[in-house]
Structures are given as structure tokens and as C-alpha cells.
Amino acid sequence: MKFDDLDSRQKQVVDAVLKSDGKTLVLGGPGSGKTTTALWTARTYLESSDNNPARVLFLTFSRSAVSQIMSRSPGGVSEFPDQIEIVTFHGLAYQLLREFGRYSGHGTTPLSIQSETRAKLLGHDESKLRYKDLIPGVLEILEGSERIKNLLTSRWGLVICDEVQDTNTEQLRLLELLASRKLLLLGDGNQMIYTFIPGVSPERFQQIRAWADTEIELLPTSHRDPSGAIPALADAIRRRRFDDEAVLDAVDSGRLTIHFDSDVDDCAARIGELIWQQLFHYQRPLCRARQRRLPFRHQHCICLSSGW
Taking the mean position of all CA atoms in its chain, how far away is CA 77? Predict the structure, then answer.
């Protein structure tokens, strides 16, 4: 993929980040090109000799997301392995605690982490950190030492945050402290999946939107589905508009099956069958698979067929 292949909104994002400091929020649905846009922004930033420091930090939520971002990386980004760091929030916090933990009472010995499961079963081992201690520990260091804060803010000239709608209060505060110059936020209010975590809510996302200096919404197209059928269908289902043209067309073509007022067990069996079909289709290994009953709270069951 070449830079010229980006659409007008994606190029607008690259220009906005490169031409001025501040917080840029990019909104877009699944497949709209947020990750691709961010990686091209990173690449263009690193190619510019005017930017100092020429380093980029890309924060995300899971290790699987890290690998997905790397797999989508345009060829040019792989040319800067020592200048772009793609890591999870907790992974970064652990790195920083290992580097600066001695300034907050953790000593010079290597840090070890106790899983939440072990902590619940065996009790918390005071000599070990829990995952929930990592980010607060880093915040304590950054807020308590102006020297360390300045050192870290000078380490990355561009900080990128994926799925910003799912950041909680601590993660957002970490972004504020680390990104002193350019901060690129990628978000989609319709994909907020961590609302069970304190600090993650639609209201908080609106605050993030108000906090950003610039907001750019990508074009309502899907690069994974150039026809636009899947985004239109997903939006209609989300709004429960089952008489929408996108839904009717998908039903007529056999790509979508809708079962109204289905029995819970029947609903679970149908969805389970589709999941198994997809897993075998992509030849993904199945480890320790278990059959389990899935809870459904809605009367309407919508099953996408493997034709999608």
C-alpha cells in the first residue's frame, strides 16, 4: 500500500498530526482504516528529519492487538524497528516500573507479578505486584518526579492510543503525562466493550472528545468490505432497524439469518454451529475446547452465515 492509496480523510489526519502539536482524535467504525492511518502517520513522522525525538509509542489493550497492528503495518514502518514501540498499557507500565521503580520503593531487584487469580486463591503476596498495581505505580513515579516525567516525555515525539473509548481514568492520565507534544487517539464510541471497568463510559468518551484539540471522522466506508454492505448492515442491526434495506438485502441473499423469539438453547446451538464452521474454515487450532451453554438475554437472535 502506498501513501497515495489513502483517502482524503486519512491524509487529513496525517497532515494534522505532522503540522501541529496537540491531541488529534480520529473516529471511525470497523474497517474504516484507523490503524492504517495511524501507522502511516507514524511512518511519515519518522521519515521527517525535522522531528525530534524521532520515536513513536503505540499503545493498545492486548497482546493480540499488538500482533494485529504489526501485521497491518505498511512496509515502511518495518524499516524503523528501533524507533516505533507497539506495546500494551500494562506492558509499558511494567517496563517503566522496572526502569524507575527504585524511585518509588520497589528496590533494584527484578519485579515479579502475581496474577489476580493467585491473589484471590492464595492471598496477595506483598513482595509481588498485581496487574492492577502497574499503572498506578507508574503514575506515582511520574507525578512525584518532574525529572523522570521530563525524561519520559522527551523519549517519544508521537504517542498513539488505539481504542481510546475503552481507556479508564488511570490510562488516560498516563497518556496525558507521556504525550507532551503529539497525541493521536483512535476511537469508536460504538465499540466500547469495557464499560464494566470504572471510568469507561459513553459520558467519559464525550469528555475525551471535548479534550481533543482536533477531531476527524474517517469516511463511512470499510476497507475490509469495499462494498460497504457489512458496515451498513451492522449499523442497522445495532439500531434494531430490521426493515432496513441493508438487512433485507442480506436476508434475501442468504447472508443473514434472523430468528425471532427463538428458544435460548436453540439460539445458542445455532451460534455455536456457525462459530465451529468458521474455526474449521480458517483451520485454526482448537485447544481444550469445551461445550458450554451460552447465556442470552435478548429475545431476538441474529446469526451471520459463513457467507460473510
Answer: 19
Q: What is the 3-state secondary structure (H, E, C) of 85-141?
A: EEEEHHHHHHHHHHHHHHHHCCCCCCCCECCHHHHHHHCCCCCCECHHHHHHHHHHH
Mean pLDDT, the chain, rounded, equals 80
User: Is the residue at 224 inside a domain?
Assistant: no
Residues 150 and 86 grouped into a single domain: yes
Among the listed residues 156, 162, 157, the one whose alpha carbon sits nearest the alpha carbon of residue 35: 162
Task: From 242, 307, 243, select the one nearest 281 (Cα to Cα).
Answer: 307
222 is a domain residue? no
167 and 282 belong to one structural domain: no
The grid coordinates listed for 221 are: 466506508
In this predicted model, what pLDDT tens digit does every residue of 245-270 receive, in sequence order?
Answer: 878 887 887 777 776 666 667 777 77
Site of grid cell 454451529? 273
Positive or negative, the Cα torsion across 5, 7, 10, 16? positive
Query: Structural domain of residue 245, as residue ranges?
Result: 229-304
Report the distance separating Cα 299 and Cα 242, nearest Å. Answer: 14
Residue keyed to cell 499503572: 135
Judged against a pLDDT cut of 50, whether residue 305 lies above it is answered with no
Q: Could you report the per-residue pLDDT of 73-116, keeping only the tens digit for each? A: 555 566 777 888 889 999 999 999 988 888 777 666 667 787 77
pLDDT: which is higher, 245 or 207: 207
Q: If pLDDT is split at 50, 70 and 90, which confidence band does 225 have?
A: low
Task: Provide the number of structural domains found in the chain.
Answer: 2
Query: Checking DSSP bridges between strand 300-304 and strand 256-260, what pairing results, if any?
Result: antiparallel
- Contact assessment for residue 31 and residue 190, using Cβ atoms and an 8 Å cutoff: no
